[in-house]
Each structure stands twice: as structure tokens, then as C-alpha cells.
Backbone:
């Protein structure tokens, strides 16, 4: 396989919900911000994808305590750690950071899955990313329903790629 999925993960509203934050504020010492069931759903998505790269696109990448919390949670659930992060070098909004990352790292044939609780307000020229955005709700996070939707994207893109119809993003726009 000469192409891969890039999975972009935000944390707040995806793996850390309003419920986990309120519980954490009450019991800071013994409560985890990362919802373990939601993290297991994310791990199941990674297990489902045959060839992927994982990019942390959350502001959690900027805070040492948050990164430690993530390392611990990912290790406990045996979820592979991210190998890439978006940058804040140009002070973009998250959508712009993902776009910048894609321009520098993603090949034309690659596909994306963007997990975020914010709507995608994409810069001009990146409209093709919208179908790959799985928007969670900050109350429920990356639940089983969204896992199912993400798997459907993987299935659709695998079937399309295996049909030999699309070799790059330019073909994507013609579907």
C-alpha cells in the first residue's frame, strides 16, 4: 500500500469531555481527565485502519502536564502514541495548523480523519477535508456512534482506493 490515513486528534471534547472535567475539578488527585471508554474507542479506530500516521492536533501538545496525562492514559489502554504534532509556529487556528501540516507532510494519495469537537472552518483550497471530519460533542466525546462513522470513512476510502479510480486529491473532488 503506497498511501495511508492521517489521523488528527484533538483531546478536549473528543477524549476529555465536560463530564470528565467537572469530575476532575472535584477530585483532582484521583480522577483522570481522559475518559477511558472514549480512549478505547480511539484505540479501536487505530486498530481498524491498516496503514496510518497519528498526529496530535490538540493544544495538549503544548503543556507538559497534559502530555504526561496523555502518555499515561495511552500506555494504560495500550493505544499507540502519536508520532507527529501540528505546530503553533504561525499562530493558526487548528484548521490552519492541520492544513499547514498537510501541505508539508501528507502525500496526494493519503487520506485524513480529523477528530475534533470544533466545526471545520477550512481555509480556501482545503474544502476536500470536510468529509473526513468527525465532529464530536463536548459532552459525549468520541463515542461508539462516531467510531462507527469513522470506520465507515475508512471502509469507503479503502474501497475507492482499491477500485483504482482515485490516485490523488484531485480525483477526490470528482466523486
Residues:
Amino acid at each position: 500500500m503506497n498511501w495511508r490515513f492521517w489521523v488528527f486528534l484533538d483531546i478536549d471534547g473528543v477524549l476529555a469531555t465536560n463530564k470528565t472535567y467537572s469530575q476532575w475539578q472535584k477530585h483532582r488527585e484521583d480522577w483522570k481527565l481522559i475518559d477511558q471508554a472514549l480512549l478505547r474507542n480511539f484505540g479501536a479506530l487505530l486498530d481498524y485502519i491498516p496503514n496510518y500516521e497519528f498526529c496530535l492536533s490538540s493544544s495538549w501538545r503544548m503543556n507538559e502536564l497534559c502530555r504526561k496525562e496523555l502518555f499515561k492514559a495511552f500506555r494504560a489502554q495500550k493505544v499507540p502514541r502519536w508520532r507527529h504534532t501540528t505546530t503553533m509556529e504561525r499562530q493558526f487556528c487548528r484548521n490552519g495548523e492541520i492544513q499547514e501540516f498537510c501541505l508539508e507532510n501528507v502525500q496526494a494519495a493519503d487520506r485524513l480523519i480529523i477528530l475534533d469537537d470544533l466545526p471545520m472552518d477550512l481555509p480556501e483550497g482545503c474544502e476536500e477535508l470536510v468529509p473526513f471530519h468527525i465532529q464530536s460533542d463536548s459532552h459525549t466525546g468520541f463515542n461508539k456512534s462516531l467510531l462507527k462513522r469513522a470506520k465507515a470513512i475508512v471502509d469507503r476510502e479503502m474501497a475507492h482506493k482499491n477500485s483504482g479510480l482515485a490516485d490523488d486529491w484531485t480525483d477526490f473532488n470528482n466523486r
